[in-house]
Amino acid sequence: MTARGTVAVAGVGTSHFGRQPDRDLLTLAYDAVREAFSDAGSERVDAVWVGTVFAPAGVAQRVLRAMGITGIPIVTVENACASGTTAFVEAHEAVRTGRHGRVLALGLEQMSTAFSGAITPETTDPEGRTGLAMPAMYAMSAARYLHTGAVTPEQLAAVSVKNHAHAVHNPRAQYSGHHTVEQVLASRMIADPLTLLQCCPTSDGAAAAVLTPATGAAGEVVVRGAALRSGTPWNHRSPHVWGHDVVADTTRDALAAADLDAASDADVLEVHDAFTIGEIVTTEALGLVPPGEGGKAAAGGVTALGGAHPVNPSGGLLSRGHPLGATGLAQIAEITWQLRGRCGARQVEGARLGLVETMGGGVSVLDGNACVVTVLESR
Amino acid sequence: MSSPTGADPRPAIRRTAEGDWVVVGRRCRACAEPVAYAWPRCPSCGSAVEPAHFGPRGTVWSSTVVRIAVPGHAPPYSLAYVDLDDGPRVLAHVPGRNADEPTPIGSTARLIGVSDDGDLQVEVTG
What we know:
Largest interface: A-B, 38 and 45 residues
Helix content of chain A: 25-40%
Pfam family, one (chain B): OB_ChsH2_C
EC number (chain A): 2.3.1.176
Largest sheet of chain A: 9 strands, mixed
Distance between the termini of chain A: 25 Å
CATH topology of chain A: Peroxisomal Thiolase, Chain A, domain 1
Protein name (chain B): OB-fold domain-containing protein
Helix content of chain B: under 10%
Strand content of chain B: 35-45%
Shape of chain A: globular
CATH class of chain B: Mainly Beta
InterPro entries (chain A): Thiolase (IPR002155), Thiolase-like (IPR016039), Thiolase_C_2 (IPR055140), Thiolase_CS (IPR020613), Thiolase_N (IPR020616)
Oligomer: heterodimer
Number of strands of chain A: 11
Shape of chain B: globular
Structural class of chain B: mainly beta
Domain ChsH2 C-terminal OB-fold (chain B): 55-103
CATH superfamily of chain A: Thiolase/Chalcone synthase
Number of strands of chain B: 9
Structural class of chain A: alpha/beta
Protein backbone atom coordinates (compact mmCIF):
# COMPACT_ATOMS: atom_id res chain seq x y z
CA MET A 1 0.00 0.00 0.00
CA THR A 2 1.20 3.48 -0.75
CA ALA A 3 -0.93 6.54 -0.19
CA ARG A 4 -4.08 6.22 1.85
CA GLY A 5 -6.84 8.43 0.66
CA THR A 6 -10.57 8.68 0.96
CA VAL A 7 -12.37 7.73 -2.24
CA ALA A 8 -15.59 9.31 -3.43
CA VAL A 9 -18.35 7.83 -5.55
CA ALA A 10 -18.46 10.79 -7.93
CA GLY A 11 -21.17 9.43 -10.19
CA VAL A 12 -23.43 6.42 -10.69
CA GLY A 13 -25.70 5.25 -13.47
CA THR A 14 -27.70 2.24 -14.59
CA SER A 15 -29.67 0.96 -17.52
CA HIS A 16 -33.22 -0.25 -17.14
CA PHE A 17 -33.37 -3.79 -15.72
CA GLY A 18 -35.41 -6.53 -17.36
CA ARG A 19 -35.53 -8.93 -20.23
CA GLN A 20 -34.14 -6.87 -23.09
CA PRO A 21 -33.12 -9.41 -25.74
CA ASP A 22 -33.53 -6.88 -28.55
CA ARG A 23 -30.86 -4.64 -27.08
CA ASP A 24 -27.16 -5.49 -26.78
CA LEU A 25 -24.51 -5.15 -24.12
CA LEU A 26 -23.13 -2.09 -25.89
CA THR A 27 -26.30 -0.04 -25.56
CA LEU A 28 -27.04 -1.30 -22.04
CA ALA A 29 -23.51 -0.36 -20.95
CA TYR A 30 -23.77 3.04 -22.62
CA ASP A 31 -26.97 3.82 -20.70
CA ALA A 32 -25.13 3.18 -17.44
CA VAL A 33 -21.85 4.89 -18.32
CA ARG A 34 -23.50 7.96 -19.86
CA GLU A 35 -25.55 8.50 -16.72
CA ALA A 36 -22.55 7.93 -14.44
CA PHE A 37 -20.42 10.40 -16.42
CA SER A 38 -23.19 12.98 -16.43
CA ASP A 39 -23.62 12.48 -12.69
CA ALA A 40 -19.86 12.84 -12.12
CA GLY A 41 -19.72 15.94 -14.29
CA SER A 42 -16.84 14.57 -16.34
CA GLU A 43 -16.23 11.95 -19.00
CA ARG A 44 -12.55 11.52 -18.12
CA VAL A 45 -11.40 8.19 -16.66
CA ASP A 46 -7.89 6.79 -16.29
CA ALA A 47 -8.78 3.10 -15.99
CA VAL A 48 -11.80 0.79 -16.08
CA TRP A 49 -12.69 -2.37 -14.16
CA VAL A 50 -15.52 -4.37 -15.73
CA GLY A 51 -17.46 -7.11 -13.95
CA THR A 52 -19.36 -9.73 -15.90
CA VAL A 53 -19.96 -13.48 -15.70
CA PHE A 54 -21.35 -14.80 -18.96
CA ALA A 55 -20.48 -12.05 -21.44
CA PRO A 56 -18.20 -13.13 -24.29
CA ALA A 57 -14.42 -12.69 -24.11
CA GLY A 58 -13.39 -9.15 -25.02
CA VAL A 59 -16.71 -7.64 -23.96
CA ALA A 60 -15.13 -4.82 -21.94
CA GLN A 61 -13.05 -3.42 -24.78
CA ARG A 62 -15.91 -4.10 -27.23
CA VAL A 63 -18.45 -2.00 -25.35
CA LEU A 64 -16.00 0.70 -24.21
CA ARG A 65 -14.50 1.41 -27.64
CA ALA A 66 -17.99 2.20 -28.87
CA MET A 67 -18.06 5.10 -26.41
CA GLY A 68 -14.54 6.26 -27.18
CA ILE A 69 -12.86 4.76 -24.09
CA THR A 70 -9.64 3.26 -25.44
CA GLY A 71 -5.92 3.24 -24.75
CA ILE A 72 -6.20 3.11 -20.95
CA PRO A 73 -5.94 0.08 -18.63
CA ILE A 74 -9.15 -1.98 -18.94
CA VAL A 75 -9.52 -5.08 -16.76
CA THR A 76 -12.36 -7.62 -16.75
CA VAL A 77 -13.13 -9.48 -13.52
CA GLU A 78 -15.43 -12.43 -12.81
CA ASN A 79 -16.63 -13.37 -9.33
CA ALA A 80 -20.06 -14.86 -10.05
CA CYS A 81 -22.87 -12.67 -8.67
CA ALA A 82 -20.30 -10.49 -6.91
CA SER A 83 -18.53 -9.53 -10.16
CA GLY A 84 -19.89 -5.97 -10.20
CA THR A 85 -18.87 -5.20 -6.64
CA THR A 86 -15.54 -6.92 -7.25
CA ALA A 87 -14.96 -4.39 -10.05
CA PHE A 88 -16.01 -1.68 -7.58
CA VAL A 89 -13.61 -2.69 -4.79
CA GLU A 90 -10.73 -3.05 -7.24
CA ALA A 91 -11.49 0.37 -8.71
CA HIS A 92 -11.71 1.72 -5.15
CA GLU A 93 -8.32 0.27 -4.29
CA ALA A 94 -6.79 1.73 -7.44
CA VAL A 95 -7.96 5.22 -6.46
CA ARG A 96 -7.25 4.82 -2.74
CA THR A 97 -3.64 3.85 -3.34
CA GLY A 98 -3.12 6.54 -5.96
CA ARG A 99 -2.52 4.11 -8.79
CA HIS A 100 -5.14 5.90 -10.88
CA GLY A 101 -6.95 9.20 -10.48
CA ARG A 102 -10.43 8.58 -11.86
CA VAL A 103 -11.65 5.03 -12.34
CA LEU A 104 -14.82 3.64 -13.88
CA ALA A 105 -16.34 0.46 -12.48
CA LEU A 106 -18.83 -1.11 -14.89
CA GLY A 107 -20.98 -4.20 -14.49
CA LEU A 108 -22.97 -5.77 -17.29
CA GLU A 109 -24.85 -8.91 -18.18
CA GLN A 110 -27.35 -10.06 -20.77
CA MET A 111 -28.96 -13.21 -19.40
CA SER A 112 -31.96 -13.41 -21.74
CA THR A 113 -29.85 -14.20 -24.78
CA ALA A 114 -27.44 -16.49 -22.91
CA PHE A 115 -29.97 -18.90 -21.38
CA SER A 116 -33.46 -20.08 -22.30
CA GLY A 117 -34.42 -20.30 -18.62
CA ALA A 118 -32.41 -20.48 -15.42
CA ILE A 119 -28.63 -20.42 -15.54
CA THR A 120 -27.33 -23.71 -16.87
CA PRO A 121 -25.24 -25.39 -14.14
CA GLU A 122 -21.55 -25.59 -14.98
CA THR A 123 -20.73 -29.12 -16.11
CA THR A 124 -17.05 -28.92 -15.14
CA ASP A 125 -18.23 -28.53 -11.53
CA PRO A 126 -19.17 -31.74 -9.71
CA GLU A 127 -22.42 -30.46 -8.25
CA GLY A 128 -23.29 -28.48 -11.37
CA ARG A 129 -22.80 -31.65 -13.41
CA THR A 130 -25.06 -33.48 -10.94
CA GLY A 131 -27.88 -31.03 -11.68
CA LEU A 132 -27.66 -28.57 -8.77
CA ALA A 133 -29.16 -25.50 -10.45
CA MET A 134 -28.80 -22.25 -8.47
CA PRO A 135 -32.39 -22.31 -7.16
CA ALA A 136 -31.74 -25.85 -5.88
CA MET A 137 -28.61 -24.71 -4.07
CA TYR A 138 -30.56 -22.05 -2.19
CA ALA A 139 -33.45 -24.47 -1.73
CA MET A 140 -31.12 -26.71 0.27
CA SER A 141 -30.55 -23.83 2.70
CA ALA A 142 -34.24 -22.98 2.84
CA ALA A 143 -35.20 -26.60 3.49
CA ARG A 144 -32.61 -26.85 6.25
CA TYR A 145 -33.87 -23.62 7.85
CA LEU A 146 -37.42 -24.94 7.76
CA HIS A 147 -36.29 -28.25 9.25
CA THR A 148 -34.53 -26.60 12.20
CA GLY A 149 -37.38 -24.17 12.76
CA ALA A 150 -35.21 -21.15 11.93
CA VAL A 151 -37.82 -19.91 9.44
CA THR A 152 -41.40 -20.58 8.36
CA PRO A 153 -42.71 -20.77 4.78
CA GLU A 154 -44.65 -17.57 5.43
CA GLN A 155 -41.51 -15.77 6.60
CA LEU A 156 -39.67 -16.86 3.46
CA ALA A 157 -42.52 -15.50 1.36
CA ALA A 158 -42.51 -12.25 3.33
CA VAL A 159 -39.14 -11.35 1.83
CA SER A 160 -40.64 -11.54 -1.65
CA VAL A 161 -43.71 -9.56 -0.61
CA LYS A 162 -41.53 -6.84 0.92
CA ASN A 163 -39.08 -6.49 -1.96
CA HIS A 164 -41.75 -6.52 -4.66
CA ALA A 165 -43.58 -3.78 -2.73
CA HIS A 166 -40.37 -1.75 -2.45
CA ALA A 167 -39.88 -2.02 -6.21
CA VAL A 168 -43.22 -0.37 -6.87
CA HIS A 169 -41.32 2.88 -6.25
CA ASN A 170 -38.35 1.98 -8.46
CA PRO A 171 -39.08 2.77 -12.12
CA ARG A 172 -36.01 0.82 -13.26
CA ALA A 173 -37.09 -2.42 -11.60
CA GLN A 174 -37.97 -5.47 -13.68
CA TYR A 175 -40.89 -6.54 -11.50
CA SER A 176 -42.93 -4.98 -8.74
CA GLY A 177 -46.28 -5.44 -7.14
CA HIS A 178 -48.31 -5.82 -4.02
CA HIS A 179 -48.30 -9.59 -3.61
CA THR A 180 -49.61 -11.48 -0.62
CA VAL A 181 -47.77 -14.21 1.26
CA GLU A 182 -50.40 -16.64 -0.05
CA GLN A 183 -49.75 -15.58 -3.67
CA VAL A 184 -46.00 -16.04 -3.23
CA LEU A 185 -46.43 -19.50 -1.74
CA ALA A 186 -48.97 -20.49 -4.42
CA SER A 187 -46.71 -19.52 -7.32
CA ARG A 188 -45.11 -22.36 -9.27
CA MET A 189 -42.66 -24.52 -7.32
CA ILE A 190 -39.12 -24.21 -8.70
CA ALA A 191 -37.04 -26.16 -6.18
CA ASP A 192 -38.80 -27.13 -2.97
CA PRO A 193 -39.50 -25.07 -0.91
CA LEU A 194 -38.72 -22.10 -3.19
CA THR A 195 -41.54 -20.94 -5.45
CA LEU A 196 -41.22 -18.78 -8.55
CA LEU A 197 -41.84 -15.49 -6.72
CA GLN A 198 -39.02 -16.40 -4.33
CA CYS A 199 -36.49 -16.55 -7.16
CA CYS A 200 -34.81 -13.67 -8.98
CA PRO A 201 -35.75 -13.29 -12.66
CA THR A 202 -33.68 -13.57 -15.82
CA SER A 203 -32.42 -10.04 -16.35
CA ASP A 204 -30.39 -7.88 -18.70
CA GLY A 205 -28.74 -4.69 -17.57
CA ALA A 206 -25.69 -2.61 -16.79
CA ALA A 207 -24.61 -0.33 -13.95
CA ALA A 208 -21.61 1.93 -13.43
CA ALA A 209 -19.82 4.09 -10.90
CA VAL A 210 -17.05 6.67 -11.25
CA LEU A 211 -14.59 6.72 -8.34
CA THR A 212 -12.31 9.67 -7.62
CA PRO A 213 -10.29 11.00 -4.71
CA ALA A 214 -12.67 12.66 -2.26
CA THR A 215 -12.79 16.45 -2.38
CA GLY A 216 -14.34 16.99 1.03
CA ALA A 217 -17.37 18.72 -0.44
CA ALA A 218 -20.51 18.68 1.68
CA GLY A 219 -22.86 15.85 0.76
CA GLU A 220 -20.16 13.93 -1.05
CA VAL A 221 -20.68 10.13 -0.98
CA VAL A 222 -17.48 8.37 0.03
CA VAL A 223 -16.40 4.76 0.49
CA ARG A 224 -15.97 4.34 4.23
CA GLY A 225 -14.76 0.75 3.99
CA ALA A 226 -14.77 -2.23 1.65
CA ALA A 227 -13.77 -5.88 1.78
CA LEU A 228 -13.69 -8.88 -0.51
CA ARG A 229 -13.20 -12.53 0.35
CA SER A 230 -13.50 -15.83 -1.43
CA GLY A 231 -15.10 -18.73 0.35
CA THR A 232 -13.52 -21.54 2.36
CA PRO A 233 -14.72 -25.16 2.37
CA TRP A 234 -18.35 -25.62 3.33
CA ASN A 235 -19.02 -29.15 4.50
CA HIS A 236 -20.33 -31.47 7.20
CA ARG A 237 -18.33 -29.50 9.78
CA SER A 238 -19.97 -26.17 8.96
CA PRO A 239 -22.28 -24.89 11.67
CA HIS A 240 -24.26 -22.80 9.20
CA VAL A 241 -25.98 -23.11 5.84
CA TRP A 242 -24.10 -22.46 2.63
CA GLY A 243 -22.82 -18.90 2.22
CA HIS A 244 -23.40 -17.73 5.78
CA ASP A 245 -19.80 -17.80 6.91
CA VAL A 246 -18.25 -16.03 3.93
CA VAL A 247 -20.77 -13.21 4.38
CA ALA A 248 -20.07 -13.02 8.12
CA ASP A 249 -16.29 -13.02 7.62
CA THR A 250 -16.36 -10.41 4.86
CA THR A 251 -18.70 -8.23 6.90
CA ARG A 252 -16.26 -8.32 9.81
CA ASP A 253 -13.47 -7.17 7.47
CA ALA A 254 -15.58 -4.38 5.99
CA LEU A 255 -16.76 -3.10 9.36
CA ALA A 256 -13.16 -3.03 10.59
CA ALA A 257 -12.10 -1.12 7.47
CA ALA A 258 -14.97 1.32 8.04
CA ASP A 259 -14.25 1.58 11.77
CA LEU A 260 -17.80 0.59 12.61
CA ASP A 261 -19.03 -1.69 15.39
CA ALA A 262 -21.95 -3.31 13.62
CA ALA A 263 -23.82 -3.55 10.32
CA SER A 264 -26.83 -2.21 12.21
CA ASP A 265 -25.07 1.17 12.25
CA ALA A 266 -26.06 1.42 8.57
CA ASP A 267 -29.24 3.38 7.88
CA VAL A 268 -30.01 1.48 4.68
CA LEU A 269 -28.75 -1.77 3.13
CA GLU A 270 -28.77 -3.44 -0.28
CA VAL A 271 -28.03 -7.16 0.10
CA HIS A 272 -27.92 -10.27 -2.04
CA ASP A 273 -31.48 -11.64 -2.23
CA ALA A 274 -31.24 -13.79 -5.35
CA PHE A 275 -33.64 -16.06 -3.47
CA THR A 276 -35.77 -15.24 -0.41
CA ILE A 277 -33.70 -17.47 1.88
CA GLY A 278 -30.62 -15.54 0.74
CA GLU A 279 -31.82 -12.28 2.29
CA ILE A 280 -32.77 -14.07 5.52
CA VAL A 281 -29.41 -15.79 5.89
CA THR A 282 -27.60 -12.59 4.93
CA THR A 283 -29.34 -10.36 7.46
CA GLU A 284 -28.28 -12.89 10.10
CA ALA A 285 -24.72 -13.24 8.78
CA LEU A 286 -24.36 -9.45 8.68
CA GLY A 287 -25.33 -9.37 12.34
CA LEU A 288 -28.21 -7.07 11.47
CA VAL A 289 -30.55 -9.43 13.32
CA PRO A 290 -29.75 -12.26 15.76
CA PRO A 291 -29.24 -15.81 14.41
CA GLY A 292 -32.58 -17.38 13.48
CA GLU A 293 -34.37 -14.02 13.50
CA GLY A 294 -34.02 -13.13 9.80
CA GLY A 295 -37.40 -14.53 8.81
CA LYS A 296 -39.16 -12.90 11.71
CA ALA A 297 -37.50 -9.56 10.87
CA ALA A 298 -38.76 -9.74 7.27
CA ALA A 299 -42.29 -10.74 8.26
CA GLY A 300 -42.42 -8.16 11.05
CA GLY A 301 -41.38 -5.19 8.94
CA VAL A 302 -37.99 -4.70 10.65
CA THR A 303 -36.24 -4.90 7.26
CA ALA A 304 -38.96 -3.04 5.31
CA LEU A 305 -38.98 0.62 4.38
CA GLY A 306 -40.03 2.38 7.54
CA GLY A 307 -38.58 -0.41 9.71
CA ALA A 308 -35.54 -0.26 11.96
CA HIS A 309 -33.19 -1.71 9.32
CA PRO A 310 -34.49 -1.16 5.77
CA VAL A 311 -33.08 -3.83 3.43
CA ASN A 312 -33.33 -3.68 -0.36
CA PRO A 313 -35.38 -0.49 -0.86
CA SER A 314 -34.67 -0.86 -4.60
CA GLY A 315 -36.61 -4.12 -4.66
CA GLY A 316 -33.40 -6.13 -4.51
CA LEU A 317 -32.42 -8.82 -6.93
CA LEU A 318 -35.85 -10.44 -6.53
CA SER A 319 -37.61 -7.44 -8.08
CA ARG A 320 -35.13 -5.00 -9.61
CA GLY A 321 -33.70 -8.02 -11.39
CA HIS A 322 -30.36 -9.82 -11.33
CA PRO A 323 -28.16 -9.28 -14.38
CA LEU A 324 -25.26 -10.97 -12.58
CA GLY A 325 -22.29 -8.74 -13.38
CA ALA A 326 -24.39 -5.57 -13.15
CA THR A 327 -26.02 -6.37 -9.82
CA GLY A 328 -23.27 -5.20 -7.46
CA LEU A 329 -23.00 -1.82 -9.14
CA ALA A 330 -26.80 -1.49 -9.26
CA GLN A 331 -26.67 -1.92 -5.47
CA ILE A 332 -23.92 0.71 -5.22
CA ALA A 333 -26.03 3.08 -7.36
CA GLU A 334 -29.09 2.58 -5.16
CA ILE A 335 -27.19 3.26 -1.93
CA THR A 336 -25.51 6.31 -3.48
CA TRP A 337 -28.91 7.70 -4.48
CA GLN A 338 -30.26 6.89 -1.00
CA LEU A 339 -27.39 8.76 0.66
CA ARG A 340 -28.08 11.76 -1.56
CA GLY A 341 -31.78 11.66 -0.66
CA ARG A 342 -32.87 11.15 -4.25
CA CYS A 343 -35.03 8.05 -4.03
CA GLY A 344 -38.51 9.55 -3.87
CA ALA A 345 -41.12 7.25 -2.38
CA ARG A 346 -38.54 4.58 -1.57
CA GLN A 347 -36.22 7.01 0.23
CA VAL A 348 -34.96 6.05 3.69
CA GLU A 349 -35.32 9.39 5.44
CA GLY A 350 -32.07 10.92 6.55
CA ALA A 351 -29.90 8.00 5.42
CA ARG A 352 -26.22 8.87 5.87
CA LEU A 353 -24.58 5.46 6.15
CA GLY A 354 -25.33 2.61 3.72
CA LEU A 355 -24.10 -0.94 3.30
CA VAL A 356 -23.88 -3.09 0.18
CA GLU A 357 -23.41 -6.87 0.31
CA THR A 358 -23.08 -9.14 -2.71
CA MET A 359 -22.16 -12.81 -2.74
CA GLY A 360 -21.69 -15.22 -5.59
CA GLY A 361 -21.42 -18.96 -5.67
CA GLY A 362 -21.49 -22.02 -7.82
CA VAL A 363 -18.15 -23.66 -7.09
CA SER A 364 -19.02 -26.74 -5.08
CA VAL A 365 -17.29 -27.44 -1.75
CA LEU A 366 -16.74 -23.69 -1.24
CA ASP A 367 -18.89 -21.44 0.92
CA GLY A 368 -19.07 -19.01 -1.99
CA ASN A 369 -16.93 -17.91 -4.91
CA ALA A 370 -16.73 -14.42 -3.47
CA CYS A 371 -18.43 -11.96 -1.15
CA VAL A 372 -18.04 -8.19 -1.22
CA VAL A 373 -19.21 -5.84 1.52
CA THR A 374 -18.94 -2.08 1.08
CA VAL A 375 -19.90 0.76 3.42
CA LEU A 376 -20.76 4.11 1.83
CA GLU A 377 -21.22 7.34 3.73
CA SER A 378 -22.58 10.78 2.94
CA ARG A 379 -20.21 13.41 4.31
CA MET B 1 -23.43 -23.11 -22.77
CA SER B 2 -21.04 -25.81 -21.75
CA SER B 3 -21.69 -29.43 -22.62
CA PRO B 4 -20.37 -32.33 -20.58
CA THR B 5 -17.07 -33.03 -22.28
CA GLY B 6 -13.68 -33.76 -20.75
CA ALA B 7 -12.97 -35.41 -17.43
CA ASP B 8 -15.95 -36.16 -15.23
CA PRO B 9 -15.74 -33.90 -12.14
CA ARG B 10 -18.16 -35.95 -10.03
CA PRO B 11 -16.98 -38.17 -7.16
CA ALA B 12 -15.57 -41.54 -8.22
CA ILE B 13 -17.14 -44.55 -6.55
CA ARG B 14 -16.36 -48.23 -6.40
CA ARG B 15 -17.82 -51.37 -4.91
CA THR B 16 -16.08 -53.02 -1.98
CA ALA B 17 -15.58 -56.78 -1.56
CA GLU B 18 -18.58 -56.66 0.78
CA GLY B 19 -20.71 -55.21 -1.99
CA ASP B 20 -20.96 -51.69 -0.55
CA TRP B 21 -20.64 -48.62 -2.72
CA VAL B 22 -18.05 -46.15 -1.45
CA VAL B 23 -16.77 -42.78 -2.65
CA VAL B 24 -13.08 -42.90 -3.53
CA GLY B 25 -11.76 -39.65 -2.16
CA ARG B 26 -8.94 -38.28 -0.05
CA ARG B 27 -8.33 -37.51 3.61
CA CYS B 28 -5.99 -34.78 4.77
CA ARG B 29 -2.93 -36.08 6.60
CA ALA B 30 -2.75 -32.92 8.71
CA CYS B 31 -6.33 -31.91 9.57
CA ALA B 32 -8.18 -35.16 8.71
CA GLU B 33 -10.59 -33.27 6.43
CA PRO B 34 -12.46 -35.80 4.24
CA VAL B 35 -12.73 -34.84 0.57
CA ALA B 36 -14.99 -36.57 -1.95
CA TYR B 37 -12.57 -35.89 -4.78
CA ALA B 38 -9.10 -37.04 -5.81
CA TRP B 39 -7.65 -33.57 -5.40
CA PRO B 40 -3.91 -33.09 -4.89
CA ARG B 41 -4.16 -31.10 -1.64
CA CYS B 42 -6.58 -30.53 1.22
CA PRO B 43 -9.03 -27.74 0.33
CA SER B 44 -9.16 -26.70 4.01
CA CYS B 45 -5.48 -26.43 4.89
CA GLY B 46 -3.45 -27.18 1.75
CA SER B 47 -1.65 -30.15 3.32
CA ALA B 48 -0.93 -33.49 1.70
CA VAL B 49 -3.78 -35.97 1.37
CA GLU B 50 -4.01 -39.73 1.17
CA PRO B 51 -6.55 -42.01 -0.54
CA ALA B 52 -9.64 -42.78 1.56
CA HIS B 53 -13.03 -44.40 1.07
CA PHE B 54 -16.25 -42.94 2.41
CA GLY B 55 -19.67 -44.47 2.83
CA PRO B 56 -21.84 -46.26 2.12
CA ARG B 57 -23.91 -44.87 5.01
CA GLY B 58 -24.75 -41.27 5.81
CA THR B 59 -27.39 -38.80 6.98
CA VAL B 60 -29.47 -36.41 4.88
CA TRP B 61 -28.43 -32.83 5.76
CA SER B 62 -30.91 -31.21 3.38
CA SER B 63 -32.91 -31.98 0.26
CA THR B 64 -34.99 -30.52 -2.54
CA VAL B 65 -36.90 -31.47 -5.66
CA VAL B 66 -35.79 -29.68 -8.81
CA ARG B 67 -38.77 -28.83 -11.02
CA ILE B 68 -37.13 -26.77 -13.74
CA ALA B 69 -35.42 -27.96 -16.89
CA VAL B 70 -31.71 -28.48 -16.41
CA PRO B 71 -29.71 -29.79 -19.39
CA GLY B 72 -29.02 -33.50 -18.95
CA HIS B 73 -31.62 -33.90 -16.20
CA ALA B 74 -35.36 -34.41 -16.59
CA PRO B 75 -37.47 -32.64 -13.94
CA PRO B 76 -38.72 -33.32 -11.43
CA TYR B 77 -35.78 -34.95 -9.69
CA SER B 78 -34.95 -35.39 -6.05
CA LEU B 79 -31.58 -34.21 -4.69
CA ALA B 80 -30.06 -34.54 -1.23
CA TYR B 81 -26.92 -33.41 0.52
CA VAL B 82 -25.79 -36.46 2.45
CA ASP B 83 -23.15 -36.33 5.18
CA LEU B 84 -21.38 -39.67 4.79
CA ASP B 85 -20.44 -41.24 8.14
CA ASP B 86 -16.98 -39.92 9.08
CA GLY B 87 -16.85 -38.58 5.54
CA PRO B 88 -17.64 -35.59 3.35
CA ARG B 89 -20.97 -34.00 2.45
CA VAL B 90 -21.93 -35.24 -1.03
CA LEU B 91 -24.70 -34.24 -3.41
CA ALA B 92 -26.70 -37.22 -4.61
CA HIS B 93 -29.86 -38.04 -6.51
CA VAL B 94 -32.57 -39.95 -4.65
CA PRO B 95 -34.21 -42.03 -7.38
CA GLY B 96 -37.53 -43.74 -7.09
CA ARG B 97 -39.00 -41.38 -4.53
CA ASN B 98 -42.26 -39.56 -4.99
CA ALA B 99 -40.91 -36.47 -6.71
CA ASP B 100 -43.49 -34.28 -4.99
CA GLU B 101 -41.88 -35.04 -1.69
CA PRO B 102 -38.31 -34.03 -0.81
CA THR B 103 -36.29 -36.60 1.10
CA PRO B 104 -36.84 -36.14 4.84
CA ILE B 105 -33.94 -34.26 6.45
CA GLY B 106 -32.23 -36.34 9.11
CA SER B 107 -33.01 -39.62 7.36
CA THR B 108 -30.27 -42.18 7.13
CA ALA B 109 -29.24 -42.98 3.58
CA ARG B 110 -26.94 -45.33 1.72
CA LEU B 111 -24.96 -44.99 -1.49
CA ILE B 112 -26.40 -47.21 -4.24
CA GLY B 113 -24.04 -46.43 -7.11
CA VAL B 114 -24.45 -43.99 -9.96
CA SER B 115 -27.24 -43.35 -12.44
CA ASP B 116 -26.97 -44.12 -16.15
CA ASP B 117 -25.82 -40.51 -16.50
CA GLY B 118 -23.13 -40.98 -13.87
CA ASP B 119 -24.79 -39.08 -11.02
CA LEU B 120 -24.18 -40.29 -7.48
CA GLN B 121 -27.30 -41.97 -6.05
CA VAL B 122 -28.53 -42.76 -2.56
CA GLU B 123 -31.54 -44.53 -1.10
CA VAL B 124 -33.19 -43.65 2.17
CA THR B 125 -32.76 -46.38 4.76
CA GLY B 126 -34.50 -44.97 7.78
